[in-house]
Every structure is written in structure tokens, then in C-alpha cells.
Amino acid sequence: MQLPTKMSDIGRTQEFKNVPCPFCGLLCDDLRIAMTHDAATVVANGCARSRALFATNAHDNATPLVDGKPAALATAIGRAAGILRAARQPLLMSAGTDVAGMRVLIEIAERCGGIVDHANGEALFRNLRVLQNTGWISTTLTEVRNRADLLVVAGSDVTGRFPRFFERCFGEFDTLFRIGARELWFLGDVPADLPTTLRFRSESLPVDPARLAEFFSALRVLFAGRALKEKTVAGVPVGKLSELLERMRAARYGVLTWAAADLAFPHADLAIQSMCEFVKALNSENRFCVLPLGGNDADLTAQQVTTWQTGFPVRVNFHSGAPTHDSRRDSARHAIEQSEVDAMVFVSALDAARTPPVGEIPSIVLGRAGTRADGCSVFIPVSVPGLHHTGHLYRADNVVPIHLRKIAASDLPSAAQALQRILDAMKEPH
Amino acid sequence: MIRLSGGRIYDPAHRDNGEVRDLFLHDGHIAPIPPPGIAIDREYDVSGRVVMAGAIDMHTHIGGGKVNIARAMLPEDHRDSAFARTDITRSGSGVAAPSTFATGYRYAEMGYTACFEPAVLPVNARQAHMEMGDTPIVDKGGYAMLGNDDFLLRLMAAGADQKLINDYVAWTLHATQCIAIKVVNPGGISAFKFNARHLDVDEPHPHYSVTPRAILATLTRALHELSIPHPLHVHASNLGVPGNAASTLATMEAADGLPIHLTHIQFHSYGTEGERKFSSEAASIADAIDRHPNVSADVGQIMFGQTVTASGDTMAQHRNARHAHPDKWLCMDIECDAGCGVVPFRYRDGNFVNALQWAIGLELFLRVKDPWRVFLTTDHPNGAPFTSYPHLIRLLMDRGFRNERLARIHPDAAAHSQLASLEREYSLYEIAIMTRAGPARSLGLADRGHLDIGAAADITVYRDDPDREKMFRTPEYVFKDGELVAREGRIVKVVRGATHVVRPDFDRGIEQRLQDYFERYHTIRFDNFPISADELVECGSRETLVHACARPPR
Fold first, then answer.
1. What is the CATH number of domain A138-282?
2. Which of A209, B87, B175, B226 has the fewest CB atoms below 10 angstroms from its CB?
3. CATH number given to B52-447+454-499
4. What is the complex's ipTM, to 2 decimals?
5. Is A366 left (phi over 0), alpha (psi -120 to 50) or beta?
6. pTM for the full predicted model
7. Residues with Cβ < 8 Å from A417, sequence gap 6 or more?
8. What residues of chain B lie within 8 A of the CB of A169, using their CB?
């Protein structure tokens, strides 16, 4: 076992400092964790989610299952390989695996003509369609922490998805540059758990998220110096729009953020595009950036690895041998609904609460111990990256990969190891 | 033991200019002539063939965040070029922004055995190494970017001792597992975050007040004092701006006689003459390189067609975004470390500016007298995809072909260029210098880029075809570490390349200061920032080859 840095022995409890947390896209890497036997306790710098997911008892449902019955790992591997060998076009889906797991998942897809997607694929493509059509000007967490004097949150529950976002990126702490009083605008609800100091400098406009495209198109019109005939836009008085516009123009370093997963309405990509084009326009005068937040369930990790290995950002189809990509046709949901796939691999090593989509097809689930695996053909419990083994995940801003630590032992294989064994078994003569 | 018999050896490091001799390969290296009785396991008759060391691309954007953004942004670059797996190779796609597997195979098929990613953001170094780990066959290495990071700019603004800066530079090389240091638009990426849209060599940074000249002087000195083989790798100020030749000359002077490498110098050799206020300064830039023995350069030749530009220079990329083709682009400020900008681009021979850029690049190649100080690059993919190298080599070696191509470009650009009058044709020996021996020497790769006994058996064998494009497109044999990996332009075996690094000595006292900085300002903890040797293996590196910190012979 690789020795963790800065480990101190207190009786039989080992304490680890600066441990990265893999359980949301922020990948906070300042946690202090006490390990007693197999039990991990977050003792500092955690959040409710990290405390719960580090502490989950590793012994629940930690036996491989074949057709619902306990089986040896080798048996489960053999059965999984058999299903994939027989499949015409399987779906290979991540709901939480690291770079190493994605590498093997893609190789399996390539070998058996499968489709690769992530469980959050729909949210990923709300942003990706904009990247593929017009692009954006964006920033990352440390820049926000040190520079941003204005943050606009569009229709997203930032703290619900990224509990420590304000604590770590937009609050009261030392910054490299003098910022003055930070200002915060919510287009939508103010989160209930917003720190008091921020709450009292925050402003909220009741915009229906589904009308964000309209809202930002109107801002662009005002920015171009033209008048609007309407008195209200997306339910907001034009006077308030003008006020927000003036704040955005006056910012020294403004940031507009959203979590695409929260923009769950038809054609949300057009709302995002409208935001990105407005922010591009602002940069003719001052500096303003977007911050598309993601990374939960290792969705950005799946996107990154698939992109560098295949040239396409998930929703890759190997049916003809060469990778092809159609963000609608090759979505997991479409493939299942249209019966275009005849088997499924579902990998979820981070959170046992993630469950595979229900379908008629044989499914192979590689899940964190405790995952509900009713009705699946093969269940293989796997160890947790960042707890039981090292690995890499991508952070919310899609630039920074974090190296996860091993702080506890596990008898279970990692998702990458289990997938590699399935791949090896697929190659064996049979 | 493998024997390559009867080949004509072009090994400029040892002044072999087509001498006929046999090469023996054993255990991944070039071996002495074996004593009688030693069995030759495999003999390749390469009589009449041109034999060179494996080629080295010392400036090619093959891995890291901005390359992957370019891939994700451009499905149209991948749709028509996708290929399936075979029994030995993986699938892939892409021309301007190829997938990692495609990158490794296409390079190896062309006889390249080592590639260096020149823009590794320290905070994104893991990604660069993971992508390079998935780039098969070729060796890799990275250049870590400094000079826009707030840690260095703060040190300089506070008047820190050079020794402290040297320690920081050395720590960065260790932490990022890189072989060299690059600066992109010194201070300019940071200045853009403060809403500056230009930063000339002697212009003070809007916040720190340090000048690009001071950054260049400090970093060139740091690398010199640390005895890092490769000089400071400089993407100069004012990329693409008409009249930028003046700041390029100022950049050379900023090194104050210490070694400095100016990269993709084609993009930095522009004047403002003529009715379009855009002209070639290739002659003055080439003359300055000739006069400054401390200066080396790579060209960053452009080729006509679709590509994508991916750069750390947000200031320049934001300025050039209006030329995006197709019309989409991305810029990003990154982690108080640097930035990146991705702008797809289509260079057209009928466009005056693009046509003149093409001519300027070729002029630079042909005017710089010393081939040891000018390297063959297209700044892949910024000037053109690396797969255009064979065409570029023919342009350099074949004046008739060159002038025929010149006749096709925008007539005003052709008229403004002196390219037609340049008679020089590169020899095979000179091509071997600028694609092998020169880059290896500049990077301090003692056992690459030449064919002496003990060198790595990275070898490329070409048929001597008068059509140099055809010759360099499809080598007959390519050996990597003594194994035949490509034959007639097809991959026959997939191996994994090594990672080249330097690890200079430094005073670990700098780490306390860095730790304080990370704790106060960063969103990553200091403990989690450096990449260890073990982690590099996890990223996918076969092994690290650590090169000595000693100045290469000039």
C-alpha cells in the first residue's frame, strides 16, 4: 500500500489529512479523515454528502451475484463476458468510475460494437452542444475564488449539487487580489443554506429557468444599446434587467454559472448558448466568464477519457467498428427505449444509490457494495476510488484532474480491475 | 541481434552523410559490430536505403486540456476519418485534433519516435500525462508553462532573489514531470485576466508591473543556472499581430545572450508594409537568428486547409476569435496558473494574409543558415496537422515543386515574398539535423536522435525516392527501441514509449512557501499538486527517462 502523506497514528485510528473527496464535482481535497479498522469518519472539512459516503459500511451486499444468487467472482466475470460476447450491440454506461475504469469500459465497447454513454449524458450534452456550435469564454474555481467580484447563478441549485461551493470559491477569505464586497445574483431561488454574509449581499430575480434563453437574449439587446418594447421579460421587469446589466458591465471579473443538470427542460442548450453568447459579448468591454459546473458521478471524467480515446465526447457508437457519434441516437435512454441495445454494463463505484435504468435486456452491474441490483444478470461489487484505491477524477470546472488516495483496504476489485477481467475473458477462446 | 545491412547512414551527430555501413540492434539499443559467431536473429537488407534515427517532433500539441477541448468541439474533424480497431491497434479518429491512439500510430507510420507536448499547464499536467499515456509507440515529454502564474509574478513583483525563483522552476519540473519550461506570451495571459488586450515586451503588467522582458530574463537565467538542457521555450508576445517582428527581436535581446528558443516563429515575423499593412519580416528575423548563437527556433509552418488552433495564449486567441472557421471558439482563464484558447481555422491559399504566412514560414526555413538552430514544425495543429510534414519536407528539398506551389497562392502575396528567389534546397543531411539530431541535442536527449553505439534503436529506413513527400510519408521500416513497429506505412507492432524528464537539484525550502500559498489562495492543496513517479505510471507512462542537467554542447 502506498503510504499516505502526513499520516499520524492515534492508537488504532489513523488520521489522514488533505484527502480528496470523490463524491461531488468539487473534489474538495482538504478533508481530514479518521480510519478505525474499515470505518472512515470525516472529522474536518466535509459536508453531509462526504460524511455519508465516506462512512458507508463496506460490508453490505459485497458478494457477486449471478441471476440474483451469490456467486464466485470468477463465475460472475465469466457470465458477464458471455453476455457481452453474445451481444449484438451492448450499452456501456458509467454512473461513476475513474479514468482507469473508463479506459477499460471504452475498450470493451470497441471490442463488442457497443455504445458508450454516461448516466448524466443528457446534462453533459446541454453544454456540449453549445461547445460544438458556438463555444464560450470560461473560468475555473481558483480564478473565481481570487478574482470574482460578481457571481450570477442561473437557475441552478449550486449548493445542493456542490455543497461547499461558496465556502471554497466565493466567500470571505484571503484572495490574491483585492475584490471588495462580493456580489451575488440568483436567477431563480436563493439557496436556503447560503452563508449569512453572502445572503445579505445577494439579490434574486424570479426567472423561470425554462425562459433563461429569452432573458439573456433580452440582455444582449439591451447591451447592444437597443430598447425593448416589452415591460417585462421572463417575468422580470425590464428595469431589473437593466440593473443587472449595469452590474455585469461594471464587474471587474464577473462570472455566470449554472449546473446543466438543473436546467432540465426542452432545448436547455439554447438557454446555455444564449448565456454564453451574452458573456462573449460582454468581453468586448470587461472581463466576464461562464462557469459550467458538472463533474458529479464522474460525468466529466467519462467525457474527457472518451474524447481523447475516440475523438467524441461520450455517446460514441462502435457498431460499425470505427467510432461514430450522434448525441441523440447514441444516448443511453434512446438506445434502451428504441431497443437498439441488447445488453448493458452499468458502472457505479462511487454512490450505491445510483441504480441502472430498468429494462428488459441482460444487465451487468459493477456497483459500490450496497448497490441495489435487483433483476440484473450479473452484479459485481467493486471498491471505491478515493477510499480503497487511487485514481483520477475531473473536477467541476472540467480542467483539473485530481489524484485520489487509497486510505482503506478492500478485498473487492476496482471497477477497472473487474472490467479488465471481463475484457480478458472475452478474448479467451470459448 | 538484428542487422540492417547496406544502408546509407545519415547521422549528423557523427557527421555521417550517407556513408554505407551496417547497423546492429540488440536489446533496444544500437550495438557494436558483434564478434564472429554471434547469431544474427534477423537481417534486413536495406541496401541503397536512407537510414536515419527516428524523427523527433519537439513542438506538437498532442495532449492536455486544450487539445481535448479541440477534439470535443470538432466532431466534424472526426466523422470522416474514424477507423476501426484491428488485432493489434485500437480505433480512433481525427486529423487536426486526432484521438490519442490515432496520434501515436500516424506519427510512428511517418518514422517519428518521440513527440514533445509544449504547453503543459502545471495544474493540468496530470491530464497531459494521461493523454500521452494513451498515445502509443512514440516517446513523450512535456514543457511546463510558467510566466503567467501568479506565484511567479508575485515573487518577481516582490523582487525575490533569483535563487528562490530557480528553486520554484526546478520544483515545477519535478511536480509536473516535465523536461523543459515554456513561457507563452510572457505576462500576457495573466494581463488578459485584468482586461488588458495587449502587452508589449517593455510594457508593465497591469497589476504586477513586471514587464515581459523581465519575465524572459528571469526565466532564461533560471534555466541556465539550473543547467536545464533545453533553453526557455518562448511563445513570444504579440502572436499574429502585424508588425510583431519588432517584439520578436526584443524577445531575443531579452535573453541577454543566454540560450533561448523561440517557437513557431513564423507567427512572429510580420511587418506592416504594403497597402494591406501586412508584410514579411522573415529576412530580418532569420538574420537575427544567424547573428545570435544563443537563439534557436522552430518555424510553425502553416499549410492550406482546415485545422484548429489550440494555445495557452488567451489574449491572442480572443483577438483572433473573429477569424474562427467554423465560427465557434473557446477561451478559458485557468487556476491563476495560465489559460487556453481554442479557435478552429481554415488557411486559404487565395487569402492574402494566409498565403503570405505560408511564404514567410518557408522563407524562414530557407534563410536561417544553421540547420542545428531551426527545427521542422507546424506547431501541430496550429499551423497544420503534423501529417503534413512530408509535404513540407518536399517544399524544402525541391525548389521546382516549391515554385510550382508558389504560383498557386494569392498573386499579391507571391509578389510580396522573396520566396521565388531563394534557391536553397535542403539536403537529406540537413533534414536529418532539423528533425532528429537538432531537437535531440536541444532537449538533452543523450541517447536519441543519433545512431551511435549505445543509442536507443529508434530508427527509420526510407526508400530514396526523388518524390520526397512520398519518401517521407511512407518509410519502409520504423524501429522503436529495436522493435519493428511500422512497415510501409502500416503499424505492425504496438509498443509503449517512455516519458522524458529532467529532475534538477533544488532547495526544498521553497515548498513551505508554496504550501502557504496553496493553503491561502488555491482550491487544491499543496500535498495533492505534484505528480509522483508512481502516479505517472498510473497515468499510463511506461517509464521515465531522466536526463542529466548539463548544458548540451553547442
1. 3.40.228.10
2. B87
3. 3.20.20
4. 0.97
5. beta
6. 0.97
7. A382
8. 523
